[in-house]
């Protein structure tokens, strides 16, 4: 009985931990995209905060890059960043 409980506890802990990490990351992405949209962050700062690979330094290219990235998280909405 004790072994079954221990095994079940370990299994549940293993399943819950990755889901919390994913939901935290998703919140951070949505928060950063929202702050960019509200002009609290520039495109280059948002890219840096999201730890995205972006080689350019041009602000207009960065804006297009972050708009495309953030649009993936709102596919069913007609949101203009």
What do you see in this structure?
There is one protein chain. This protein is an all-alpha fold and 81 residues long. The chain has helices spanning 2-37, 43-49, 59-71. It is elongated and about 60 Å long.
Summed up, what is this model?
This protein is mainly α and 81 residues long. It has three helices and no strands.
Helix-strand blueprint:
Layout: H1 2-37, H2 43-49, H3 59-71
Helix pairs in contact: 2-3
Low-confidence stretches: none
Oligomer: single chain
Number of helices: 3
Shape: elongated
What is the number of beta strands?
Answer: 0
Report how far apart the termini are.
56 Å
Instruction: Provide the succession of SSEs.
Output: HHH
Overall pLDDT:
80
The helical percent reads: 55-70%
Radius of gyration: 19 Å
Structural class given helices, strands, pairing? mainly alpha
Q: Which band does the percent of strand residues land in?
A: under 5%
- What profile does the largest beta sheet have? none
Keyword list:
single chain; 81 residues; mainly alpha; 3 helices; 0% strand; elongated
């Amino acid at each position: 009985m004790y072994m079954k409980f221990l095994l079940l506890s370990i299994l549940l802990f293993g399943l819950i931990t990755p889901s919390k990490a994913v939901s935290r990351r998703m919140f951070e992405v949505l928060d950063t995209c929202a702050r960019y949209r509200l002009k609290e962050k520039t495109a280059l700062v948002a890219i840096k905060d999201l730890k995205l690979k972006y080689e350019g330094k041009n602000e207009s290219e960065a804006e297009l890059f972050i708009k495309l990235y953030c649009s993936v998280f709102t596919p069913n909405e007609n949101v203009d960043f």
